[in-house]
């Protein structure tokens, strides 16, 4: 059975120690890092890419609900830890796989981990699902193409944006678009290509210039040279032009 890497986030040293002792007794879980606040949690999550994040709700600077933004994805499951049962509903609303009441009970913790393991298995890319192997914080990561929103040329590298995270692949934009992975992307300017299904809306037109808006609010500019082709592709895929207000 796969060993799951875990990150513990809690501002109380005693709580971190207690949870670490519980997890140390489980043969298929390995604690790779601990954090005491939201900023450190995000940094350590990017560095270690743990499959499990045990997140306290009451943290200095930002609560656990804010801290998990950008952490919940197909390869990471968040399990909240709290002394207050009334937070349970909100925990599930922000995408947590489970929540544990402090002090953490070992058997209850095992059940939460099994739920996380089942979700990770469901979310694992199938052998037939196209993926792109990228470098992220020194590690090689296989990212499903469906999760990649856009790529940007950085010299002989491409910066790959997927689910709010970024990684690099040693490839030019031209070669990427000519390969099998590039079939899912549309070049929008000299240095960028976007997956049209990641575009929520667009503004402007061929004459005035096009601006694409992604689901997270980020905007990408379409060059005049590419505007006509991108505009045609957007209409063909059913995208709606945003109100110019």
Could you explain the architecture of this structure?
By secondary structure, this protein is of the alpha/beta class. The protein has two domains: 4-123, Response regulator (Rossmann fold), CATH 3.40.50.2300; 131-236, LytTr DNA-binding domain (OB fold (Dihydrolipoamide Acetyltransferase, E2P)). Helix content is 29%, strand content 33%. It is built from seven helices and 15 strands. The strands form four sheets. Strands 2-1-3-4-5 form a five-stranded parallel beta sheet, with helices on both faces. Strand 8 and strand 9 (157-162) form a beta hairpin. The longest helix is centred in the middle third of the chain and has 18 residues, at 106-123. The mean pLDDT is 87.
Helix content percent band: 25-40%
Tally of separate domains: 2
Q: Assign an overall shape.
A: elongated
CATH-assigned fold name of the largest domain: Rossmann fold
| Average pLDDT, all residues | 87
Order of helices and strands, N to C? EHEHEHEHEHEEEEEHEEEEEH
Strand order within the widest beta sheet: 2-1-3-4-5
Low-confidence stretches: none
User: What Rg, in angstroms, do the CA atoms define?
Assistant: 21 Å
Strand share of the residues? 25-35%
CATH architecture of the largest domain: 3-Layer(aba) Sandwich
SS content category: alpha/beta
| Largest pleated sheet | 5 strands, parallel
Q: Quick one: CATH class of the largest domain?
A: Alpha Beta
What's the CATH superfamily of the largest domain, by name? Response regulator
């Amino acid at each position: 059975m796969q060993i799951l890497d875990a990150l513990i986030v809690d501002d109380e040293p005693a709580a971190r120690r207690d949870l670490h002792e519980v997890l140390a007794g489980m043969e298929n879980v390995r604690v790779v890092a601990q954090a005491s606040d939201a900023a450190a949690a995000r940094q350590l999550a990017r560095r270690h890419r743990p499959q499990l994040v045990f997140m306290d709700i009451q943290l200095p600077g930002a609560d656990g609900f804010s801290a998990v933004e950008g952490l919940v994805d197909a390869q990471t499951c968040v399990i909240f830890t709290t002394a207050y049962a009334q937070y349970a509903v909100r925990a599930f609303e922000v995408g947590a796989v489970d929540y544990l009441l402090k002090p953490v009970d070992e058997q209850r913790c095992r059940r939460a981990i099994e739920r996380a393991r089942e979700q990770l298995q469901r979310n694992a890319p199938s052998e037939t699902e196209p993926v792109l192997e990228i470098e992220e914080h020194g590690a090689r990561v296989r990212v499903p193409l469906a999760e990649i929103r856009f790529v940007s040329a950085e010299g002989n590298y491409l910066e790959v944006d997927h689910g709010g995270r970024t990684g690099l692949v040693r490839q030019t934009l031209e070669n990427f678009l000519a390969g099998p992975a590039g079939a899912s992307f549309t070049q929008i300017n000299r240095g960028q290509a976007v997956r049209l299904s990641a575009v929520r809306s667009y503004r402007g037109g061929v004459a005035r210039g096009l601006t694409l808006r992604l689901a997270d609010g980020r905007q990408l500019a379409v060059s005049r040279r590419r505007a006509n082709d991108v505009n045609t592709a957007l209409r063909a895929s059913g995208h709606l032009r945003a109100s110019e207000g």
